[in-house]
Every structure is written in structure tokens, then in C-alpha cells.
Write a structure and sequence with these properties.
- The complex is a heterodimer of chains A (238) and B (409).
- Chain A has 238 residues and is of the alpha/beta class.
- Helices cover 32% and strands 27% of the residues of chain A.
- In chain A, the strands form 2 sheets. A 6-stranded mixed sheet of chain A has the order 6-7-8-3-9-10, with helices on both faces.
- In chain A, helix 3 runs parallel beside helix 5 and helix 4 crosses helix 5.
- Chain A is globular, with a radius of gyration of 18 Å.
- The two termini of chain A are 34 Å apart.
- In chain B, strand 2 and strand 3 form a beta hairpin.
- The mean pLDDT of chain B is 86.
- Chain B has 409 residues and is α+β, with helices and mostly antiparallel strands.
- The chains are: A alpha/beta (238), B alpha+beta (409).
- The complex binds adenosine-5'-triphosphate and magnesium ion.
């Protein structure tokens, strides 16, 4: 059983009279412990695909199996439970709650999981330490740099021990050096904690951190290459 | 399964985080609630005061005063000579079938002394009939009688204010006081009545037989003179008849021809008071209307703030859903937020409205009565507005796909 298995999922947006096919019958499998990069030109359906994987959106057709569970058969609240426990989503724009401390932001997934206060703050502090933000728990998002905010978001994605992290252009708003630090963090989580990581990016040096690259074009997967070793197999493209 | 303590915590945290929004929403509720309470308290207080004055004055009353009526109203300038006599009063009682009782009035201000205490008060010379006319009972002792009036006895009834000032805690019944140096025996004490319609303290008075007032205290310009008289009709439906009968009788007794102006005027006190009560009711309604406008404005303020914050809050809802908030986690959070704001704002509004009413009555001497209905009405209106506009956008957002909530603009 694969961790993630999608069978012919598509996504169609109705815009007035015309149907816009953002995703056309995509099928693929992703195994536990993989580090996958998703690439492709703008508008090719990468985010659409990620949002479906993250249970933030539903496919128009097709089947999505996560850990053997048919996601299409779950109701809203069961999906919320999946997002809470199985998936950590990292956004390009961070999506932290404003005017709320880093620690409280990281605590949030545990609040919705009903974890007691003491355990909550201990684990949140631990997660912040894990992403290199020890002692920054009291800072509000607007008191943190972009890289630090993204680390808070990653800590939030980690804190409920989700086996999967989905990151849609997590370094899109960051400079090269900070991007490299964030990517090192993902690599560490992948190798040390065996967390499955799926990341959308436009940049080859970001994709170079992955072991597998899936390329999208006009809503379809056009290539899917396993590199086995990080950093290989990139020179041939573009 | 919903985790209530956690949701409560989330709500309170969100309120604390969005301080400005919370404060402004509460302000809307506070203004709405306190304005309605204070305004209606002023209106209710005013009409209650008039009702009390009406019942303290007695019912179905006419007053007969000297001086002619002109088309412009009652002419009662300085130097108006009295033309009324005690015999007129007795005749009205005897000959007008619509009249139940008559109370003559010969009033003056006099110094009243008991041992080493003295007090300046209004001394009213009258008959036992006056107590019936004014629906006035004694709190102790007994009234003077027709016999006392006939023989001009030196006896008196004291108003409570006079008792308080001359006697303190001593029982005045049976004691001797001096009015203008004439000794009087206190027969009884008049029950408390409070303020009159003209703002005088009705308990600051001494009643003596009218004949005693004429002969021994004030003296008269002509035999039997009185200043005015109050007449009680047999019932509300007899007021017009009584007025007519008194007019006819007095014109005849005073020998006034049909074309001549009368030298007296009969006024319908009850009608005058009812007119005042009507206008106070109109005023209460007006105040209520103004207050409702502020309630509405407060409500619109709440609505605006809530709606303006929807975009921000919809993204917040998207974030919360993305990390695992269930439908009712979201809804409960916003219900609790809105309830908390409405409750705190409403309570603050009630406190401010009630103290505001008290400050108004202390500052301007307006009697104010806070009615429970105004509290209930304003509280529930602002509360419902706050809860509806706080919760409805959140309810709608809770039905969105998480990704749509995250992208909401
Ligand atoms: N909510 C929506 N309504 C209508 N069309 C949409 C919506 N979301 C996405 N699309 C369309 O679907 C297509 C795929 O969009 P998507 O966001 O998946 O692209 P992307 O590969 O992530 O692009 P980028 O690299 O610019 O982020 C685009 O043509 C876009 O216009
Ligand atoms: Mg995208």
C-alpha cells in the first residue's frame, strides 16, 4: 500500500460558460519517506494538485487514497481530522495567524486535537527548537523575518507528528540563502524523521534537494523521474 | 467531538488578539443599550411623577379662583381682589347636585412656634371638607369638625414637614403651638403627600378652621372672605356639570348680568393634569424614538465592524480549517466571541445607562425610572445584532472549502 495514491483525478473550474481544466486525469503514487519536487510552468496545475493532496480542495473526478483511506468518501469533519493529524501544509505566504505569538501559532493544531495545555506548550516549544527558533516563541509574526515565519509554519506543520509535509513554493518569498536554510531543514526532517515531503517549486536548485521530480504541463504530468540520490539528474533539463 | 474548553480558549484568545475590533463592537453595544435605558428612564420618570402628583392632588377636581377669564386665559395679576366668601363655598356644596364636596382656602405664610423651635410655613384656613376634596387622610390624631369651624376653635392639623421641623421625634398630638402668636392645639398630623404639580412640598403646611384663620390669624378685607376653593365633583362624568352649576350659582350670588364678565373663574384641574400627562407621554415616546435611533446606529456600527473584518476573518478561518478545525470548532468560536462581546458590552451598557440616569436626575433634578423592559429590549436587540453579524459571516465561511476560505478577498 502506497502512502499516497491518486487515480485519474481531475479538477475543472466553471468560469461562466467555459470549463477550465486545471488538472486533467492525473495518476501517480508516492511512498512513505519520499522527497518529491513538483515543477512546471505557471498555471500548469501544481497548486491545484497540492491542494487536493492536502485535502484543502476536492477533485472533480478521480480517486485519492491516503494510507489506504478513500478521501473522497470522508465528510468535512473527517477531512479536518486528516489535515490535523496526517498532513502538515506549508504555504508560500506562511499563513500564520496575525497578532498571535509564534508559540500560540504552533499550538493551534494541538488545540484542535484536544491536547492538554501543558503538553501543548512543551511540544510547541520543542517543535520551534527543532526548526531553529528556540527562544522566539513569544514573537509575533510581524516581529519575525520571512525565513523565521516560514520556520514557524513548518513547526506548526510538524507539531502533530504528521507523516506528510506538503509545501507549495515554501521558498517563493525568501532570498537564496534563507531558501537554502529552509530546504536543509526539510532534508533533515526527511532523513532524520522519515517524514514524506512534497514540495512545489520553480527553481532548479530547490528541486535539487529532492530525490524525485514530477513535472506538470497544462494540468498533466509530463515527466516523473527518480534520481535515487539527491542533487542528480538535473543537468539534463532546461 | 467538540472540545469546549479549547474552543473557549480560542475564542477568548481571538478577542484579545483583535482588541480594536472587540472594543469597537462593544462600544456599539454599550452606546445602544445605555442610550435606550437612560432616555426611557427620563421619560418614564416624568410620566410617573405626573401620575403621582395627580393622585396626590385628589381626583375630579375643580378650582374656583377670583378674577375674570379673558379670551387670552386667566387673568390673575397682582392685586386681584378676592370676591369669594365662605358662604359661596357653603352654597355650592348645598345647591350644586354634581358637587360632592367643597374645600375653601384662606392661605397665608406664618411663623409657627413650638417651645424654642420655629418654622415658617403656609397656613391654610379651610373646612373638614378639604380633606375629602384632596383625598387626604391623617397619619395620627383626628381632624377638626364643622363645629370647630362654626365656633372658630384654635385647633390645627400639621403637615409632616412641619412636624419634623418643630417636634422631631416627639408626638405632636395634644401639644400647643403658636401661629402668629396665637396658641393652637394640635389635633392631628396629615399623611405624607410629597411634591405638588407646581413643585411645592405639600407636606409643608398647617390646616386650621377657615373661620379661625379669618378672625384670629389673617383677618379679612370683608366678612367671610376666602382666597379660593377646591371642588370635588361626584365623578369624572360630573365634572362638566359641576363646572356649569358653579358658574350659574356664583353669577347669581354675585349678581352678574348675562353680558358681564364674571368676577371668578372655574378651572378644571383634573383636565389640566391629564393634558400634562398626555404631553409627557408624547415626550416619552419621542425620547424612546431618539433612543431607538442610537440603538440602531449602535447596531449598524456593530454590523460594519463585523462585516469589515470578514475578509481578515475568512482567511483566519481558512488557516484554522487547513490545520484541522472542524465545522463546529469554527462556528462555536465565533458564537462564543459574539456572545462574549454582547454580554460584556450589554452589561457595561446597562451599568452606564443606569448610572447615567441617576446622574441626570442628580444633575437636573429629573425623576428617572429605569424600566426593566428598556433593559431587556436594548440588551437583546444589540445582543442579537452582535451575535448575528458576528456569527453569520463565520457560519458562511465555515461552509467553504478550506482553500476558498484561504483565498477569500
Ligand atoms: N479558484 C479557481 N477558479 C478558477 N480557476 C482557477 C482557480 N484556481 C486555479 N485556477 C486555474 O487553474 C489553473 C492551474 O492553477 P494552479 O494554481 O494550480 O497553477 P500553478 O501551477 O500552481 O501556477 P503557479 O506556478 O503560478 O503557482 C490556472 O489556469 C488557474 O487559472
Ligand atoms: Mg501555485
Amino acid at each position: 500500500m502506497s502512502l499516497i495514491q491518486v487515480n485519474g483525478i481531475s479538477k475543472v473550474y466553471r468560469l461562466g460558460d467555459i470549463d477550465l481544466k486545471a488538472l486533467c486525469t492525473v495518476s501517480t503514487k508516492i511512498e512513505q519517506g519520499e522527497f518529491v519536487a513538483i515543477m512546471g510552468p505557471s498555471g500548469s496545475g501544481k497548486s491545484t494538485f497540492m491542494n487536493i493532496l492536502g485535502c484543502l480542495d476536492k477533485p472533480t473526478t478521480g480517486q485519492y487514497m491516503l494510507e489506504g483511506i478513500d478521501i473522497g468518501k470522508l465528510d468535512r469533519d473527517e477531512l479536518a481530522g486528516i489535515r490535523n493529524k496526517k498532513i502538515g501544509f506549508v504555504f508560500q505566504g506562511f499563513n500564520l495567524l496575525p497578532r498571535t505569538s509564534a508559540l500560540e501559532n504552533v499550538e493551534l493544531p494541538m488545540l484542535y486535537d484536544g491536547i492538554p495545555a501543558k503538553e501543548r506548550s512543551e511540544k510547541a516549544a520543542g517543535a520551534l527548537k527543532n526548526v531553529g527558533l528556540e527562544g522566539r516563541g513569544g514573537h509575533h509574526p510581524n516581529q519575525l523575518s520571512g525565513g523565521q515565519q516560514q520556520r514557524v509554519a513548518i513547526a506548526r506543520a510538524l507539531v502533530n507528528n504528521a507523516p506528510i509535509i506538503l509545501a507549495d513554493e515554501p521558498t517563493g518569498n525568501l532570498d537564496t540563502k534563507t531558501s537554502a536554510e529552509i530546504m536543509e531543514l526539510f532534508v533533515k526532517l526527511n532523513t532524520e524523521s522519515h517524514i514524506t515531503i512534497i514540495i512545489v517549486t520553480h527553481e532548479h536548485d530547490i528541486a535539487a534537494y529532492s530525490k524525485r521530480i514530477i513535472r506538470f504541463l497544462d494540468g498533466c504530468i509530463v515527466s516523473d523521474e527518480e534520481k535515487g540520490i539527491r542533487g542528480q539528474g538535473l543537468e539534463n533539463h532546461d | 467531538m467538540i472540545n469546549l474548553p479549547a474552543t473557549l480558549k480560542i475564542s477568548l484568545r481571538a478577542l484579545r488578539v483583535n482588541k480594536m475590533r472587540s472594543a469597537l463592537t462593544m462600544l456599539g453595544i454599550i452606546i445602544g443599550v445605555s442610550a435606550v435605558i437612560a432616555m426611557l428612564a427620563v421619560g418614564t420618570g416624568a410620566s410617573r411623577q405626573i401620575e403621582e402628583q395627580m393622585s396626590s392632588m385628589g381626583s375630579n377636581l375643580l378650582i374656583v379662583v377670583p378674577g375674570a377669564t379673558t379670551s387670552g386665559g386667566v387673568r390673575m395679576g397682582a392685586g386681584t381682589q378676592s370676591t369669594l366668601t365662605l358662604a359661596d363655598a357653603e352654597a355650592i356644596k348645598r345647591e350644586c347636585p354634581a358637587v360632592e364636596e367643597v374645600g375653601p382656602n384662606l392661605t397665608g405664610v406664618a411663623q409657627v412656634v413650638y417651645s424654642n423651635m420655629n418654622w415658617s410655613t403656609g397656613v391654610v384656613g379651610t373646612t373638614p371638607g378639604m380633606l375629602i376634596v384632596r383625598d387626604w387622610t391623617l397619619s395620627s390624631g383626628k381632624p377638626f369638625t364643622e363645629q370647630d369651624v362654626k365656633s372658630a376653635t384654635k385647633v390645627c392639623l400639621l403637615g409632616q414637614v412641619v412636624v419634623d421641623n418643630l417636634f422631631g421625634d416627639t408626638d405632636p398630638v395634644g401639644k400647643i403651638i403658636r401661629i402668629k402668636n396665637v396658641p393652637f392645639t394640635v389635633l392631628g398630623v396629615l399623611g405624607k403627600k410629597g411634591q405638588s404639580a407646581t413643585g411645592q412640598d405639600q407636606d409643608d403646611t398647617v390646616y386650621i378652621p377657615v373661620t379661625t384663620a379669618q378672625k384670629k390669624v389673617f383677618g379679612t378685607a370683608f366678612p367671610g372672605m376666602i382666597r379660593s376653593m377646591m371642588v370635588k365633583a361626584r365623578g369624572a362624568e360630573y365634572l362638566a356639570d359641576a363646572e356649569k352649576q358653579i358658574n350659574e350659582l356664583l353669577r347669581q350670588r354675585h349678581r352678574i348680568g348675562p353680558k358681564q364678565d364674571a368676577d371668578f373663574t372655574v378651572r378644571n384641574l383634573t383636565q389640566m393634569m391629564q393634558a400634562r400627562e398626555e404631553s409627557t407621554k408624547v415626550m416619552t415616546l419621542l425620547l424612546g424614538a431618539i433612543a431607538s435611533v442610537s440603538l440602531l446606529v449602535g447596531g449598524i456600527g456593530i454590523m460594519n465592524i463585523m462585516l469589515v473584518s470578514v475578509t481578515e476573518r475568512t482567511r483566519e478561518i481558512g488557516i484554522r480549517m487547513a490545520i484541522g478545525a472542524k465545522t463546529w470548532d469554527i462556528r462555536l468560536q465565533f458564537i462564543i466571541e459574539a456572545l462574549t462581546l454582547s454580554l460584556i458590552g450589554g452589561l457595561a451598557g446597562i451599568i452606564i445607562g443606569v448610572t447615567g440616569s441617576e446622574i441626570l436626575s442628580a444633575l437636573f433634578g429629573w425623576p428617572t425610572i429605569v424600566s426593566p423592559l428598556s433593559i431587556l429590549m436594548s440588551f437583546s436587540f444589540s445582543g442579537l445584532v452582535g451575535i448575528f453579524f458576528g456569527f453569520y459571516p463565520a457560519y458562511k465561511a465555515s461552509l467553504l472549502n478550506p482553500i476558498d476560505a484561504l483565498r477569500y478577498e
